[in-house]
Amino acid sequence: MTETKKYKILMVDDDRFLLNMYETKFKNLGHEIVSLTSSETALSKLREGLSPDAIVLDVIMPHPDGLELLNTIRKEKLAPLAAVIMLTNQGESSEIDRAQKLGMNGYIVKAALIPSEVAAEVIRIAEEHKPR
Predict the structure, then answer these.
(1) Domain of 78: which CATH number?
(2) pTM of the predicted protein model
(3) Which of 36, 53, 103 lies closest to 75 in space, CA to CA?
């Protein structure tokens, strides 16, 4: 039997309640999570060398928003091995297309899944994306 990999996850969302809920879900599954309410703080941590396996970003946040943050992460090659996953209530195809063009690895609509399903989907995408 193989042991399930434990992931380091960076989650950025301006909603502290949601962050706390997801933090609990991921920790209960044995994963390490860094949860931040600011894109600017996330950029600082990544520039300082934070190297998560997965980065989960909300789209709608104060400047810079999640898509701008994704763009900067890719442009600056921050955490290049991390899967970047958008977790948002924005399900419009234009938003998804824009995120794909910016290099996201997954797109999850919050309202479509319960928190445990979101956690499972983040781990599935991270697993799919991990270097072989």
Answers:
(1) 3.40.50.2300
(2) 0.92
(3) 103
